[in-house]
Amino acid sequence: MATRNWTRDQLIVAFNLYCRTPFGRIHNRNPEIIELAKAIGRSPSAVSWKLANFSRLDPSVTGRNLSGATHGSSLDQEVWNEFNRDWDRLSFESEKLKAKLFGRSIEAVESNPFPEGKVRPTTVMARVNQGFFRAAIMAAYETSCCITGIKTPELLRASHIVPWSVDTKNRTNPKNGLCLNALHDQAFDCGYITLDDQLRVLVSPQLRHGVNVGLDEMIFKFKGHPIQPPKQFVPDPSFISYHRDKVFRR
Question: What global pTM score does this model have?
């Protein structure tokens, strides 16, 4: 029997799953991979191999051994490039395709219900994309704060490096995110902490060491320490530079 080529729509949904799947769970026993395989009429092995093929395009995972990671098609590269040209648009497109594939409405993608009455499409897109971004960041950092190591999901945030309002095309780009606990998320958002080019924690000189025990324990304790890097989608240096130059309080 001739091998069926993957379609663009199938690859977009598969890449959505790649973004949401922790590196160590890309295998044919993963329930989500099995579910997608059934929906598109392929084997779980074929889907896990395709996710592995996407990993070969991710500089963050270069050199690691994933079955199938040395193979791929030109269409894989095209889909990778499409996402990287406009993450916001492609994230939403992938969520719409996934919802259609599994017989769900796009408004029901997120667990939090939308308000009753008419909801503007822009509101739907924003909510859906926020959900995609959080899932991708939690997967990349294995649901662990990259500064403190806290692993309680309810205390973790998917933090944007370049603020949501500044760069619309990279709002859902996992390379524009960090997994931080709620306190460090707020400190990062307000510019009281940032990262240097080696991804070590910098603390704003506007905060004073030795004045507040809480700050000493939660902020200054980690000054100069490198973050725990993600398994996928390492932060883009240009985004880190933007935060340090435009958001960090000097």
Answer: 0.89
